Amino acid sequence: MAGWDEDSPQLFENLTKILREIRDGAKRRDALTLESARGWHRGAMAGLEVPFPECVGKYRGEAGLTEIHVGIGTAEGVPPTQVAAQLKAFEARLQRALAVLDRLYPRDRELDADGLAAAIDAAAWAHAEWVRIHPFANGNGRTARLWANAVFMRYGLPPAVRLRPRPDGGYAKAAAQAMRGNWRPTATVFREMLESVL
């Protein structure tokens, strides 16, 4: 059985299935929620060897994960005791932003330049904020990339953020800035990713 972070056929199959589900939900403009991310996390880990299977689909701070601290390099995600509140704020802010974009750009209307910029900003903010919070014990990066692609597909854009292997270019530096609460470098990187596929 392949490991959870190994670029295996099983992981590729899992991520492909999740992206299809996100694409189908995006066409309907389904709500993007914390429960969506739980499902993505469970789906991504299905059939893979996970060191602590009890962590799959659970946020840090929940029962059994009250003492789990994670991060990127020397930057730590928020303390487990703050994850629930910060996720609630994340979900509320993202849903407000998407509600505005949904009104301005209904499914039958293509994005103009302003809409494209707004969609990139929403995707970048969601990705960067997820990275900053680091709510899962593992798999936060791929989940953050799923958030970004979910926003893109909601507005008729391609899923431009590669899930695996991790994107190159300025992505790692943007993620480091995200850990410090700065999402703007992520927007710059995402704009470049979109331009390369549009």
Which stretches are poorly predicted, pLDDT < 50 over at least 5 residues?
Answer: none
| Strand portion | under 5%
- The end-to-end distance, rounded to whole angstroms, is 37 Å
> What is the number of E strands?
2
- In N-to-C order, the SSE pattern is HHEEHHHHH
Structural class: mainly alpha
The CATH topology is Fic-like fold
State the fourth-level CATH superfamily.
Fido-like domain
C-alpha geometry: globular
CATH architecture: Orthogonal Bundle
Question: What is the name of the CATH class?
Answer: Mainly Alpha
> What is the helix tally?
7
- Radius of gyration from CA coordinates: 16 Å
Count of domain modules = 1
The percent range for helix content is 55-70%
* Mean pLDDT, all residues: 96
**What composes the largest sheet?**
2 strands, antiparallel
- Order of strands across the main sheet: 1-2
Quick gist of this model?
It is built from seven helices and two strands. The chain is mainly alpha-helical and 198 residues long.
Would you give an account of this structure?
- This protein has 198 residues and is an all-alpha fold.
- It has helices at 9-28, 34-45, 80-104, 113-133, 140-154, 171-178, 184-197, and strands at 71-72, 75-76.
- Helix 1 packs antiparallel against helix 2 and helix 3 (80-104) packs antiparallel against helix 4.
- The protein has one domain: Fido-like domain (Fic-like fold).
- Strand 1 (71-72) and strand 2 (75-76) form a beta hairpin.
- The chain has a two-stranded antiparallel ribbon.
- Helices cover 58% and strands 2% of the residues.
- It starts with 8 loop residues before the first helix and ends with a helix.
- It contains seven helices and two strands, in the order ααββααααα.
